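Morning F.,

Quick status update on the modeling queue. The single chain you submitted on Monday has been processed. Sequence for confirmation:
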Amino acid sequence: MTNSSQIVTRIAPSPTGIMHIGTARTALFNWLYARGRGGKFLLRIEDTDRARSTPEATEAILEGMRWLGLDWDGEAVSQFARVPRHAEVAHEMLAKGHAYKCFASQDEIEAFREAARAEGRSTLYLSPWRDADPASHPDAPFVIRLRAPRDGETVIEDAVQGRVIFRNDQLDDMVLLRSDGTPTYMLAVVVDDHDMGVTHAIRGDDHLNNAARQAQIYRAMGWAEPVWAHIPLIHGEDGKKLSKRNGATGVMEYAEMGIPAAAMRNYLARLGWSHGDDELFTDAQAIEWFDLPGIGRAPARLDMKKLENVAGWHIARMSDDVLLSEIDDFLALTGRPPLSQAQHDLMAAAMYCLKDRAKSLPDLLEKGQFALASRPLQLDEKAQAALDPVSRGILHELTAQLQNVSWDRDTLEAVLTRTAEAHGTKFGKLAAPLRAALAGRSVTPSVFDMMLVIGREESLARLTEAASRDG
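Structure tokens below.
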């Protein structure tokens, strides 16, 4: 248990094979809230569904959390490992009269509901065992049900949704412990959150109805409820519930797109939360600014264009060392060959002219292709077209003029401009064949930047190779 004044948040995903983008955003909100207040951020894996809860599925969640950079305090907790504790609480509620044994079979419950439907009554199951004399209990399997209040209201004071009222006659006596002794999700969540000292339950608003039922357990046990904060869901770009059809749903899909984790944190923080008009910010700012009143009630909408802009802003501001490390991780994640030491060194030298306009790590690699390529260069279609006989002749002449000049921007610019003028043209006309010769591409950093990065020897070798190409 934690000290009473400390903020404790948690993320409690079910292992399903991927870490959903919505789960990632919920984790981020909990992480920001705790980190901004000197609190604890805990991780619990809700792995009681043994069919789906494989080690691989659990690892997928841990991988997503690690990639996002959301560090949690202590060990990740397995909900399944706490089943005896859940059962203990159910029996404690039974002993205190807050729960009761129900011997109704599934057939009896379904028969009740069919009759209710036929008569136009509520299908909410009302167990005949709620007030039965224990002396009349059969020697048969039973579930333990919550003795929920039948009258009045259960009120949730939600930090995001405001006051939410549930009529108790619309809530049934939910099952706490199944006949095989395993707990239901509703019971397990409450017991775990209580035992872990969770002070704030920040989660998706698809759990809002669960809050009413879970609050009844808290109140029956006399436990302090957490601050409830139910955040809006994320919709796709078309405004519909996020699915494979309208956006990437798994957080690692964004890692594989080459979105830096820092950019993803920034973007996810703005999905459903705002701080004035601030769109672009650092982790330190997000931790300082994040608070529950800044969360809106309307669903947030995924916007890939905006994500790319956020990624571009972060890439431009990252240190070269961090960016190179991100590139290494990206290549490993996507199963691509790692950079050689020489490529690493050249990318480091080129970073100053690459990162200002890149929107993703693949974009950065594409812009830096001139530094990664080796001769003979593979030319794209536009680059091939730029190397016509006239251009190749000018490149041949230029190569000779560059042999012994100082290798600095001013000198290179003077030589290239003079060569263009000698042929009655402007330097801009020379740029396309030079890009083709130096990078094999039609879209590249500036010609001078490329020549300075790869150096005299390699620049001249590439110009010579381009000049001698067959038409």
